[in-house]
Design goal:
The protein is α+β, with helices and mostly antiparallel strands. It folds into three domains: 86 residues, Rossmann fold; 63 residues, Dna Ligase, domain 1 (2-Layer Sandwich); 190 residues, ATP-grasp fold, B domain (D-amino Acid Aminotransferase, Chain A, domain 1), CATH 3.30.470. The protein has 13 helices and 18 strands. The strands form three sheets. Strands 10, 11, 12, 13, 14, 15, 16, 17 and 18 form a nine-stranded antiparallel sheet that branches. Strands 3-2-1-4-5 form a five-stranded parallel sheet, with helices on both faces. Strands 6-9-7-8 form a four-stranded antiparallel sheet, with helices on both faces. It starts with 7 loop residues before the first strand and ends in a 5-residue tail after the last helix.
Length: 384
């Protein structure tokens, strides 16, 4: 706790999610500390209380957590046994290790969701090509192969059309503790994300359900709320997310990524932290996902998640040929003064998420055109 009595929140991970938590923390008078792999990481550039260390290093975690009222996460990669050690020190870890493990291990997640009756793509643990072929006899080709641990932004995920392709994938070395997961490939009409915030006392709020578009396994753009989504289907998605948060005892933000096949919803992934699909809420909601995550992990009353405009559009800025992103400001901001730009202070690499833009208004198709133009100019795809 800081000298003025305000709590100190420790965030494990120095990425852009921790960086975007700094502004709402400052507004609330909350102290932030970040465990960052490098002093040059995104969050370390804007949060003054930085501990440089590895999230796999228990000693570094213990030193970082000392003096924090609660520890939360920019990513889900901390070993659960380490988090249990922090809890033994008397540190509140939110979400707790038993909840967070669902976001760390896809097989554990699939089994838990199946046990509580949440619809997922059909799935099976496999270790040999014969297992994949047997599964394909039930679901048909193509199907999806995933590593149970370590994958993100499209990594560790393959779509295969044949036993030969499956054999090639299964030859890829697995990370320690990881297994192969085969899943039915859902013929979806759109991908959705339902975000909720939940506090330790069980208060929970649900954000508008959004449509996401993935390119190369990376979230490219988000429209909030999802255009044309029937109200009953939106409520179904929100109820699923709230149920998962409660049954898995999640505290903080939970993002539930779903496939909509036009008839039903299937849960694809879980993220127990602020999420790319919720960046629109900084400008587009009464209370952003970052503020509500802080409120939730501190067990403060949660803020209103309602949208403040008919639509909000977020488009990710992916690294391209332009290394000096700041040079794009003059054109982007002069051309469209209403666009909001967030740069993450990350070194530009092709395909890397280095920022995002948000536009709010009445016509989501127009907002998408404006958001795409700004993001493409930053990436060097266009020059006018």
């Amino acid at each position: 706790m800081d000298r003025d009595g305000a709590p100190r929140v420790g965030i494990v991970g120095g990425g852009q999610l921790a960086r975007m938590s700094a502004a709402p923390a400052a507004a609330l008078g909350i102290g932030l500390r970040v465990l960052s792999a490098s002093a040059a990481d995104s969050a370390a550039q804007v949060i003054h209380d930085v501990h440089v260390g590895d999230h796999d290093d228990l000693a570094a975690l213990r030193q970082f957590a000392t003096g924090c009222d609660v520890v939360t996460f920019d990513h889900e990669h901390v070993p659960p046994a380490h988090l249990e050690q922090l809890e033994a020190m008397g540190v509140a870890v939110r979400p707790g290790p038993s909840a967070l493990f669902h976001a760390q291990d896809k097989i554990h997640m699939r089994q838990s969701l199946t046990d509580i009756g949440v619809r997922c793509p059909r799935w099976r643990v496999v270790s040999a090509v014969d297992h994949v072929v047997d599964f394909a006899d039930e679901t048909g080709w193509p199907l999806v192969l995933k590593t149970s641990r370590g994958g993100y932004d499209g990594r560790g995920v393959w779509t295969v059309d044949s036993a030969e392709q499956a054999a090639d994938v299964l030859s890829v070395p697995l990370a320690p503790g990881s297994q192969w997961l085969a899943e039915e490939r859902i013929d979806f009409v759109q991908e959705l994300s339902a975000q909720v915030a939940r506090s330790p006392l069980g208060q929970a709020v649900a954000y508008p359900v959004v449509r996401t578009v993935q390119k190369g396994g990376i979230c490219a753009e988000v429209v909030a709320p999802a255009p044309g989504l029937a109200s009953a289907r939106a409520v179904q998605a929100q109820e699923m997310a709230l149920r998962i948060a409660g049954d898995l005892n999640v505290t903080g933000m939970l993002a539930v990524e779903m496939f909509d096949d036009g008839h039903d919803l299937f849960v694809n992934e879980l993220a127990m932290r602020p999420h790319n699909s919720g960046h629109w809420s900084i400008e587009g909601a009464v209370t952003s996902q970052f503020e509500n995550h802080l409120r939730a992990v501190l067990d403060l009353p949660l803020g209103n998640p309602a949208a403040i405009a008919p639509y909000s559009v977020m488009v990710n800025i992916l690294g391209g040929d332009v290394g000096d992103l700041y040079s794009a400001y003059r054109h982007v901001l002069a051309r469209d003064p209403a666009v909001k730009v967030h740069l993450y202070g990350k070194q530009v690499r092709p395909g890397r998420k280095v920022g995002h833009v948000t536009v709010v208004g009445d016509d989501y198709e127009e907002l998408l055109r404006r958001g795409r133009h700004a993001a493409d100019y930053f990436a060097g795809v266009i020059d006018e």
